[in-house]
Amino acid sequence: MVTIVPSPDVKVGPEPEVFINFRGAELRKTFISHLHARLRREGINAFIDSDEDAGQELKNLYKRIEQSKIALAVLSSKYTESHWCLQELVRMMECSMKGEGCNDSLRVIPIFYKLETSTVAELTGEFGLNLWNLWRLPGRDRGRDNRIVNWNDALNFVLSRNALILPENGNGKDEDFVSRIVHHVKTILGQISTQRGQNPKPQKGGGNPKPQKFHSRASNNTLPEDQRLKQLEAKLDVEFNDKETRIVGVVGMPGIGKTYLAKKLFDKLEKKINHCVIIEFDSENSKEQGSEWVEEKLVKGLLNQDCIDTNALVVLKDSLMEKKVVIIFDNVTDKKQIFEPLMDSCDWITKGSRSRIVITTRDKALTEGLVSDLYEVPGLNEREGFELFRDQVCCTLKGNLMEMSRKFVEFAGGNPLALKEFGKELKGKDEDHWKTRLGTLRQRSNPKIRDDLISCYDELNEQQKDVFLDIAFFFRSQDENYVRSLLHSYDPESVESGQEVRNLAEKFLIAVCDGRVEMHDLLFTMAKELVEANEDKSRMLLSSGAELRNKEGRDKVRGIVLDMSNMEEMPLEREAFVGMTNLRYLKVYNFLCPSHSETECKLNLPDGLEFPKENIVRYFQWVKFPGKELPSDFDPKNLIDLSLPYSQITSVWDCNKVAPNLKWVDLSYSSNLNSLMGLLEAPNLLRLNLKGCTSLKELPEEMKKMKNLVYLNLRGCTSLSSLPKIIMDSLKTLILSGCSNLRTFEVISEQLETLYLNSTAIDVLPPAIGNLHRLIFLNLKDCVNLATLPDCLGKLKSLQEVKLSRCSNLKIFPDVKDIKENLRVLLLDKTSIAAMPGSTSHLSLLRRLCLSRNDNIRSLEFDMGQMFHLKWLELKYCKNLTSLPLLPPNLQCLNAHGCTSLRTVTSPLARPLPSEQIHSTFIFTNCHELEQASKNAIISYIQKKSELMSPDRYNQDSVFKSLIGTCFPGCEISAWFNHQAVGSVLRLELPQDFDAGRLIGIALCVVVSFNKDQNNSLQVKCTCEFTNVSVSPESFLVGCWSELGDETHTVESDHIFIGYTTLFNIHKRQQFPSVTEASLRFEVTNGTSEVAECKVMRCGFSLVYESDEAENVTWEETPRMEGKTQGKSSSFNSIEYDDDCSIATPTTATTNTINTIITYFTKKAQ
């Protein structure tokens, strides 16, 4: 027995150790829920956004990031749908570099969940498309260019870190991946704890460290209700600054605090204004509370008289119109209750110049046409909710009680009523009672909460009730358009047809967030209770097939969800679904294994399966369906979504069936599928996923009837040898990746925008490919039989990205002059191309060019000096390359790692012009033949470019980020660095009379000795401490790289790293003139700990002053990209990667202007 001791002063729960950044609509109920729970079980205080209630400002989440020690950035295909995900990622990047407001440097661990790193780097596929769509959303014009710059930096940042990767097509289990993550997190937390123990921060004034400070109700200056009251007052203009009538609707779900807030406002205004009235409606007595009752309440309230003739109000209305009047209508459930008083009999109220009117309601639709503004009451955040819950239970929260408290607060989801009621239930109870109640939270509602929620449900019509329960049981966190399609009204004549989702959202019974339909846990629990209390069991959540044997009420069953994760293998009766004439939704799956690849179907069909002849099934999902085909008596006339991944089917049906409403079909990894019979009469099909159907040998010509098909995925269909000669009018995405027996390619749609032909056996592209005028993306990677490209490729004027990596027989790249308007990315690594076309005018807008691993290239004879938009040039392992010409002036990254024959570079390396790029990095690791004159040219270029940089353009927020850097073989530090030391520590005294006004930055140089046992991710880091001023230490990455995949980035012998950064952010730069002593410590790390095998041999430091030449050079006078291309826009890509064409990534830096993503997006928007 645990004794609970009342205590008025209780600390709030500890600050989070791990912040998890993820796309909630995609992963919340699956992968993240497992990861979050596992971290908690391991005693790690992990934080996800649901701990901070929806509706709160982003800065609340920022604070959680700042408080955390580790941040997990879980990138998935739908990650870029969310503005919040990207904004959080930006803050994580800033905090990892010890940005403003962060106590300690945050450790950021990128996690690629079923997402290729190259997809993120190249902004391709759904990930890139979502980013484009997010950027161009209406109403986001202000500052959106700055946002895309920050997002670009943040994505580059995660690509430069050690990452944990679960491949999209891998066989790894989610649970194994979760274990890897948890192990990694625990290791890093241990390192952090050790480091802090060894290097405790000094406490000012001596003595013991102060205890951690928590914000409590006693110490917090602003209570949550006060904050919300201020927000409402601002909308209402309670100071009467203008003479217009203000009518504000206060809306929100039951229990969120609408009435409490309205009464608090009334109590405050009643003391200042003579004419105030609050009219409270009772939903149980709504018939007695008509317009006459409302008018009477107005008379009595405004005139402060209990008995007066109603006509007296008309007499006095002229005088009241010039007075300050406050009216609150609370708990309005019917528009008629207030429409007539406000718009007819008492319309003088709204016409009065000094009226302030508040309408509280849980139905936003009731306010349409009445209010001038809306205030949606936000829920409490985690801290506010914890404080309210603690105040109710009045006990010391320690150990298990603390953890259980967090779960109660999390379940309440910021709803004050729920927190109060849970607190009342648990007040004075022992720990066993707490555990028991926690176990029933999702099965049994608190009576008070249930009554309030059911009263909302009772106000719905029958269609709305059905849709509400369907969402609760089958479609939480699903795409809004998808849900609308499945729930569309069955009565086409109904006025409400198709509007149910919107109506429920307006009544706060569901929420639509980032395009996903969500439902509060309180409402979900109430929904389950409603169904369980109904004897017809219209919606069934089953954990065993045996429960289908019940013969009673079968005609009432509307949906079935069967989770096979905890059931034993068993046969299913043939008649299991017979009699279920009302069945709309059927889902059979395994909750514990979302990928399904390793699961077994535990339901066998020894006698087949039978469905009602007049079935109305709309949604049919059965993972690992054991039958060879669907029942022949199954009529698909109402079917909208058919999902049978990993099934045993050979065909969907043995004959064609008309499926006029079918839109989505997923038969992926059905390895026995050899026929598409049964799908050929589905004219409205939108998406067809046949990935991994290894027995499928051909596509039928009848597919041309699929006039609306926009997406066809045939990835890994290894038996497919050709495509039919048909035209599909709407097809935009065609994926044939890994179709290793596909030898010929036919153009089956001239509307294609995305075409994947990588890893196929094709040896030539047909002339008809020149008709793909809408094609944006073409992937031909690993087409080892492809020897030539047709000249008609130049006709593809929309083409932006061409991937020819590892096309080892390709010797010539054609002169594609006509595509110069759009081509941004060209990957030619590991081909047999010996030279690029002599004229590069048609490639003037190219952003990324990859020629790595090409032994035929000996020199680059094309004119790169005029390629003003080229940002990334990759020449890795071009072992016969001997020289480099003049490089593009705006080049952001050159990677020449492993060019073992490279001897000379031009001097200057490139035109050292002021530029708007965010950083420049030149990698010459393992270029052992590089002549000393070439090394001097590289150093000279870095020095000149750093002197021409404006300090105001960089590092406005964070400190010591490498803006210009290089590395090459060597062991001697240049004389440019006038402070030098042997070893890893440099102590120096700065001159007191240096010209601080012209000082713009610092340059660092490090000599590192490498051995052959190296990590794929290394950082050369400098930590700078100032001994004579109170300025916190700063970290600076002199250089770094991150290799993707299994390739090891081995550096041989000693190498020199040089990095330049502008001085400090604006605030700390003002303190720098007082700095006279500094200590610089250099180390090589893998992102989390020091790499002992890599030793710092020498180090150097130099102050960088603005060049006299820079004063005479303006940004407008330089040959910028726009000037050279007659107004043509830049492209969009961040640092690019490929599967085995990765580059050493420099650190990123924030800037207010960038000519990469922005101009491309702007052009596309126009």
From TrEMBL:
Q: Where is this region: Disordered?
A: 192-226
Instruction: Please write the reaction equations for the catalytic activity of this protein.
Output: NAD(+) + H2O = ADP-D-ribose + nicotinamide + H(+)
A Gene Ontology molecular function term for this protein is:
NAD+ nucleosidase activity, cyclic ADP-ribose generating
Highest rank taxon of the organism: Eukaryota
Q: Which InterPro entries match?
A: Apaf_helical, C-JID, Disease_R_plants, Leu-rich_rpt_3, LRR_dom_sf, NB-ARC, P-loop_NTPase, TIR_dom
Give GO BP annotations, semicolon-separated.
response to stress
Using the record's annotation, list all stretches that form the TIR domain: 14-189
Query: Recorded E.C. number(s)?
Result: 3.2.2.6
Q: Which UniProt keywords apply?
A: Hydrolase, Leucine-rich repeat, NAD, Repeat
Q: What is this protein called?
A: ADP-ribosyl cyclase/cyclic ADP-ribose hydrolase
